[in-house]
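Troubleshooting: if your tokenizer reports a length mismatch, compare against these two reference records.
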Amino acid sequence: MTQQPFTPVTVRQYPKIDLHCHLEGSLSLGALREMAAVTDTPLPVGDRALHDLLIATATNPETTDYLKHFQPVIDLMQTAEQLEIAGADIVRSAAADGLIYMETRFTPTLYTQGNLTLEEAIAALLRGLHAGTKTYDVPVNAIVCGRRERSLAELTTVFETAAKFAGQGVVGLDLVGDEAEYPTIALADAIRAAHATGLPIALHAGETAPVDNVVVVMSLEVERIGHGQRLNGFPAAMARAKRTGTTLETCLTSSHRSVDLPDYPNLPLQDFLNAGLKVTVNTNHRTIADVNLTDEILALHDHSDLDWNQLAQLTHNAIDGAFLNDADKAALRAKVPVIA
């Protein structure tokens, strides 16, 4: 494994994978201005003012305050043209960050407040992703999300609609929202509906709610857990995660800033690595959390002495957990240094 130092240049050049990146929290300021022009929506003058409107930089704010930063973006994603711009932009960001693969999460019911149907919203996003991949040569697929607080009927419709785009860029399903108010055990029927589509599932659990949520997810045979840091300190639950090979999608900077977690150096990625879990490192909200994967990895190196071998392990874990076929995974592995 290379012995070169960890610098912004060397880490950016390293072939990285982001499995947990929400579209609406990750769009560039330039893309948002382009999207605003589509509907003549006024935005703050100057990038500093727009930056301050969108980016949550305070450590551990109230989650409801953190979430207010999403609304201006959601308002700009109500037409097909705007969603196409958004899709192409997230691929551009992936390329600029040195990624070789990304899965972006997308909640289509948020973008049907105008005239779009669910199918039209998903199709528009995929057109943008495909255009971006053609331009920047980075594959980016979509995970379609339902909202935990919605009815089983609505969630089933979302999942069945998403499944129509399997093989066209939709690779998985998720449930997002307040996991403390809507615990995983109450969503068992919705998770079964997701399984019925044949698409794999990456479910939010263990970010803001207790470890019980993560244990329930594992019992429902979900392939990946979004966040999952509440596993730490529970040996039996961690052993189960190792035994099942469940992939954990940690998003350390975003979680540190948005929920009541300890200081960044004490977040559990190293504990998960040491326990042999299939842990990965991701961004969650690139714009709103003001982070990219290069900066996330540099922070891990500074705070917890992450080394190149561990970065390779994280990256190979991400390949193992990616919602891709074996041939596509093999192509990604060929780009990543082997673990010494």
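Reference record two:
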Amino acid sequence: MSLEKVREQVLRVVEKNLSETEEGVMLNIRIESDFDENYITIEGGELIFRTRESDENKYNATLIGFLSRELKIPSSKIDIVYGVRGGFKRLLIKDIDAEDLSRRLLKIIRLI
């Protein structure tokens, strides 16, 4: 499979997990723990944040810190609007459009 086809498939998954609102973009993501490092990947059509954090009470802060650092978005612009206690999260990322967020996510998603 060519690199361009892989990029198109990844972009489709990213776009499926984003929805634009008046305030910014909603991002759907699932958290899995006990990995060697923090990263975002794709599995079964979902965006997954894999974290080394094993304390469930720190998942949200770890996710927001990671997204803020990697996407270069202030953490004050990232809110969890659904799934504060669960493994599935819906985040509102303010003051950004879906196209810009998609482009930034494409740069940080790990496929291997």
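Descriptive notes for reference record two:
- Helices lie at 3-16, 59-71, 98-108.
- The chain has a mean pLDDT of 95.
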